[in-house]
């Protein structure tokens, strides 16, 4: 309903109409129908499915693709906060990688609290980062991206992707075989 109100409000400004009913009647054939669906598409957020035992591939990128880690201490700070989030929200991390301007996580939510944990992770890290560098404002670009993963079918392949992502991007060492004793 909010989308309809916004579209009608925008149309009334553009058309300088005095009455929403007349505006709808005049525009029903062309403009009215198209704009309602466009507004709904632009304004609706995708649903986040959260449940106990769910596995997610999560990424979060720096605002304007800027760096979110400036040095090793920033990376360690983020890992410490991630550890607290895991304890508090009962997360299990199956894999992660920190790129310069974003990170990748494979998160299993034992209690189904992905949104609350991500708000804590990104929010507390942003506050600490801003305090450390005497900055203010957003550190992360929009919402984090979370894809629900079928554990049995994709966990191994997705773990490979997360671990090898920096190598493919040219930012990491090539993987080596470990000698097993």
Structure write-up:
- With 181 residues, the protein is of the alpha+beta class.
- The protein folds into 2 domains: 42 residues, no CATH class; 115 residues, 2-Layer Sandwich (Alpha-Beta Plaits).
- It contains 6 helices and 4 strands, in the order αααβαββαβα.
- It has a 4-stranded antiparallel beta sheet, sandwiched between helices.
- Strand 2 and strand 3 form a beta hairpin.
- The longest helix has 20 residues.
- The radius of gyration is 22 Å and the shape is globular.
- The termini are far apart.
- 18% of the residues are buried.
- The N terminus and C terminus are likely disordered.
Major sheet: size, sense and barrel closure? 4 strands, antiparallel
Shape: globular
Helicity, in percent?
Answer: 40-55%
Strands across the major sheet, in which order?
2-3-1-4
Count of the domains: 2
Give the radius of gyration: 22 Å
Total DSSP E strands: 4
The first-level CATH class name of the largest domain: Alpha Beta
- Give me the CATH architecture of the largest domain, please: 2-Layer Sandwich
Mean pLDDT: 76
CATH topology of the largest domain: Alpha-Beta Plaits
CATH superfamily of the largest domain: Transposase IS200-like
Structural class: alpha+beta
SSE ordering = HHHEHEEHEH
């Amino acid at each position: 309903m909010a989308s309809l109100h916004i579209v009608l409000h925008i149309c009334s400004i553009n058309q300088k109409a005095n009455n929403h009913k007349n505006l709808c009647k005049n525009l029903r054939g062309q403009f009215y129908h198209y704009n309602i669906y466009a507004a709904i598409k632009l304004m609706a957020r995708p649903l986040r499915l959260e449940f106990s035992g769910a596995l997610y591939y999560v990424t979060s990128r720096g605002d304007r693709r800027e760096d979110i880690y400036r040095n090793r201490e920033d990376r360690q700070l983020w890992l410490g906060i991630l550890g607290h989030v895991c304890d508090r929200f009962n997360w299990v991390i199956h894999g992660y990688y920190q790129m310069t301007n974003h990170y990748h996580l494979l998160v299993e939510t034992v209690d189904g609290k992905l949104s609350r944990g991500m708000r804590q992770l990104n929010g507390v890290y942003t506050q600490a980062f801003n305090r450390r560098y005497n900055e203010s404002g957003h550190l992360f670009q929009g919402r984090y991206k979370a894809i629900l993963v079928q554990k049995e079918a994709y966990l191994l392949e997705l773990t490979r992707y997360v671990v090898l992502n920096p190598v493919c991007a040219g930012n990491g060492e090539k993987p080596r075989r470990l000698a097993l004793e």
